[in-house]
Amino acid sequence: MASIEWMAFFVLLVSALAAGAAVTVSNLAVTREICLLKQTYRWQKSLELEQIQARLIDDRRDELARRLEQNGAWRNVVHQILADAFPDGASRDVGEDGWITPVDVSGSPPAFTVARQDESGSRFTFTTASDRPRWRRREPAVPVDASLSPTARIEVEAVWRHLAEGRGLDPQAVPRMASWHLVRQVEKPKAKRRIRCLR
Predict the structure, then answer these.
(1) What number is the average pLDDT over the span 28-33?
(2) 103 & 142 share domain
(3) Does the reported pTM lie above 0.70?
(4) For 101-117, how does the pLDDT look when each residue is reduced to its tens digit (9 = 90+)?
(5) Contact at 8 Å (CB) between 170 and 106?
């Protein structure tokens, strides 16, 4: 190759490298802008969802306040939460209202326990303290959160307040982000005693 051809080849090579670098920089800038646009979109949608959820929770809280004034209406709320938490049938085939009864209500930590009025002996404890060792080992705690229903936490807190006031307790303020948990305690049937016959 002549020197002119080498020079032309070199110029073309440099031009191609410069064009490639310019395209790469441009692509990086576009990618960065797209990422920023996605972040802004997600942030905006998150704000919209929070506002919608806040309105939904406020409406549900008002509806619960009216509903819980009716005699025994809290049982329907608890039954729905149990059906959502245990779709395997832990609360299936229940009778009329009165199938569960409050066993214990405490204010510190906020908690209440209800029991089925049948031979199963099942108890369901709703509590904000799920870190008790025996619950961790034997009965796993189910989080009562938006995975069950967007308003599940509000519903449990409303039932707890209703039961606590009915027992003469003064329910203190619960932190807005307090985590409620549900523990199912199934009574094991007692082993029958063997009676030895004396011969």
Answers:
(1) 85
(2) yes
(3) no
(4) 888 888 778 889 998 77
(5) no
